[in-house]
Amino acid sequence: MDSTILQPQIQEFIENQIGNSISKLALQKNPFPDVEWIRILNQIEAKTKAKDKLPTWFNTKNIIYPSKISVEQTSSEPTALYKTSILSGENLIDLTGGFGVDDSFFSAKIKSVVHCEINSELSAIVQHNFEQLNIKNIECHAGDSFETLKTLNRKWDWIYIDPSRRNDTKGKVFMLKDCLPNVPENLDFYLENSDAILIKTAPLLDISAGLSELKNVKTIHIVALENEVKELLWELHKDYEGEITLKTVNINKGVINTFEFLMNQESVFPDYSLPKKYLYEPNSAIMKSGGFDEVAINYNINKLHKHSHLYTSDEILSFPGRIFEITTAFPYNKIEMKNQMSGKQSNITTRNFPETVENIRKKWKIKEGGNLYTFFTTDANNNKIVLICAKIN
């Protein structure tokens, strides 16, 4: 690892350039000719990315950053902290250590953590950073994690894996077998070394597709940060063959909102109704889970339509998502739209509706933004309707 980037004057320069345009900086003359300009620019860009996502690293002196991509792909601090609520025990091995954010949080709860990273340069950077962060209970091993697991030859309380998609994987749909390491292929070996495995995947992975490749899945955690799903966590326990729990998690300004239910349980049948006084829109983690009927039953609220995934009640309720008060409801037709919406400003959402937001805006000349929230959807009688709302939460 080349530590010339840690020269005090270079670190001060990087700090002073946080947030500035990299493309403009690239055109300037390098004030430090003994260090490649691209290296300095990469540090500025990556540290800028870390400012909000990784404040602990950002606020610690002499941190070395890998590529901007590595910072973009790593867990954020809030999602890393959530993972610690799942784990317990004396030791853990991370087979895909990366920038080490998850491991730094694991180390606060687990006595001994091993960070494996196939890229030796990144492994050295992470080891250096752990020293700056005063973390003393993480061992860094460079090289193939499969070989490291064999060499260490011990029983682990937890194995953690964050497999990366291969570069040649095309399209949005992917399988775990298309990732490195190939978890389905190696799963039996992993389970020989630990009775508990936590696998992190991107939210793009289809839940049913993941289940078709894995076994012994006990819980799937769908983790959203400020209503954007960031990751799926697959919790596996050796020999577990019971029902699978889907746990939705939305972290918003440090507050964690959860909702969970059992997959493939006996059919539940929610009640349907026309719009009442309040409207509820589930958060993105629940939307990913598919637990639309379970939400209605659990919170004792009515669905607008089987496929609309919007809910309504006369009394305001605590709900894992956005809450609105319906001020106006009317059928979607030319006369009503001209009278109620034409030329106005509103935030628009469509649910189970044949037209796109863009098309609606263009057709009725509705401006974006403002304090109104308008839902275009289908009601319990299969009629296309429009709901003008004021946001409560």
TrEMBL record:
Domain annotation THUMP-like: ranges: 321-391
Organism for this UniProt entry: Flavobacterium commune
UniProt GO MF annotations: methyltransferase activity
Top-level taxon: Bacteria
Span of domain PG-1098 ferredoxin-like: 278-320
InterPro entries cross-referenced by the UniProt entry: PG_1098_Fer, SAM-dependent_MTases_sf, Thump-like
Name assigned to this protein: SAM-dependent methyltransferase
Pfam family, one: PG_1098_Fer
GO biological process, alphabetically ordered: methylation
Key words, A-Z: Methyltransferase, Transferase
